[in-house]
Design brief:
This protein is an alpha+beta fold. Helices cover 22% and strands 14% of the residues. The chain has two helices and four strands; from the N terminus they run βββαβα. The strands form two sheets. It has a two-stranded antiparallel sheet. A two-stranded antiparallel ribbon has the order 2-3. A hairpin with a 4-residue loop joins strand 2 and strand 3.
Length: 83
């Protein structure tokens, strides 16, 4: 279940430094999340940190990129192995 930043994003820059996988980056108009790097903080925290800090609640589960907790854990492990 990779996360998605909607167009309600106000470019406040609080989410980017909170991402332990560096999945969040500045896009052309708003911040975006690289679904290949997003584990919803599985392996790092109990809750997605970007959602916790977002002042406008513009970060949602990407309906086109849903993953189970075991899939997110496997992605986390793969990312840590290549780090």
């Amino acid at each position: 279940m990779s996360l998605l930043i909607t167009d309600e994003c106000i470019n406040c820059d609080v989410c980017e430094p909170e991402c332990p996988n560096t999945a969040i980056y500045q896009g052309d108009e708003i911040y975006e999340i690289d679904s290949n790097l997003c584990t919803e903080c599985v392996g790092h925290f109990d809750e997605p940190q970007c959602i916790e800090v977002c002042p406008v609640d513009c970060i949602i589960v990407d309906p086109d990129n849903q993953e189970s907790k075991p899939q997110l854990q496997a992605k986390y492990e793969k990312l840590m192995a290549s780090a």
